[in-house]
């Protein structure tokens, strides 16, 4: 598995964590301690804020999981990919976007710039 795909797998393990204990470990495995995530709705820095942001999405979309849509692409210390937020019950995907990750030397994420391509209107 490529360095980029591995980082994206760890990233989604955090977003899809099913419990608080798993989330704590997954965020630590995916991001450096002072890593950040920024999209049009969220600006989180550090593991505590990252976990809080992920918890907020989990509460807003119970029963949904993030999945890669297409291929992960990367060069140097940067990866990009598209994703969908998919209902486990019916396969619908009301939210989709594209993210760009910057990787630290150890392969964990130092930063994420997220773009929302499709969001619910109501």
Automatic annotation (TrEMBL):
<protein>
    <submittedName>
        <fullName>Nuclear transport factor 2 family protein</fullName>
    </submittedName>
</protein>
<dbReference type="Pfam" id="PF12680">
    <property type="entry name" value="SnoaL_2"/>
</dbReference>
<feature type="domain" description="SnoaL-like">
    <location>
        <begin position="8"/>
        <end position="110"/>
    </location>
</feature>
<dbReference type="InterPro" id="IPR037401">
    <property type="entry name" value="SnoaL-like"/>
</dbReference>
<dbReference type="InterPro" id="IPR032710">
    <property type="entry name" value="NTF2-like_dom_sf"/>
</dbReference>
